[in-house]
Amino acid sequence: MTIAPGSAPAASAPRHPLDPDPVRATKARAVFALGLMAAMTGLLLGGAVPAMVALQLARQARREAYASGGFLTGATWLRRGERLALTGLALVAVSLVALLVIGVVRLAEAPYGQDFAPNVD
After folding, report:
1. CA pair distance 68, 66, nearest whole angstrom
2. What is the rounded CA–CA span in Å between residue 39 and residue 84?
3. Residue 97 burial (CB count, 10 A)
4. Residue-range domain boundaries for the chain
5. Which of 13, 26, 38, 97 measures 20 to 30 Å from 32, CA to CA?
6. Strand 72-73 versus strand 23-24 pairing type
């Protein structure tokens, strides 16, 4: 059946009484919280661990939501949490590159070899 643009969709069939009620996946909230923590601590290099955990939980939550047949919701929270986790990982990468550049510059400025007194041949 095709629905014309702008028209209301047809009424869906009544639910079976034994069907479970749609609920938000608890992992979706955990993914969002871990992603937020990763984004907030990303510059301090502490965001890598919660970001990796959030991405793993997001994979599991998506798999469970697909298997539930639409009775687990929370896809929006999962997407937001994944984006925040990826932002946290990007901030960790930026911090590592900045630390590496600072280390190389300091190493280049350090004197090379032994520094003898001016009267030593």
Report:
1. 5
2. 6
3. 10
4. 23-108
5. 97
6. parallel
Q: Is 114 helix (H, G, I), strand (E, B) or coil?
A: coil
Alpha-carbon gap, residue 91 to 50, rounded angstroms:
13
Q: What angle do CA 50, 101, 91 make, to 5 degrees?
A: 25
Nearest to 61 by CA among 80, 86, 87: 80
The CA distance from 113 to 34, in Å, is 48
**Alpha helix stretches (DSSP H) within 16-114:** 26-40, 48-67, 75-109
Task: Tokens for 11, please give them.
Answer: 């009424």
What is the identity of the amino acid at 120?
Answer: V
Measured on CA atoms in the order 109, 110, 112, 115, is the torsion positive or negative? positive
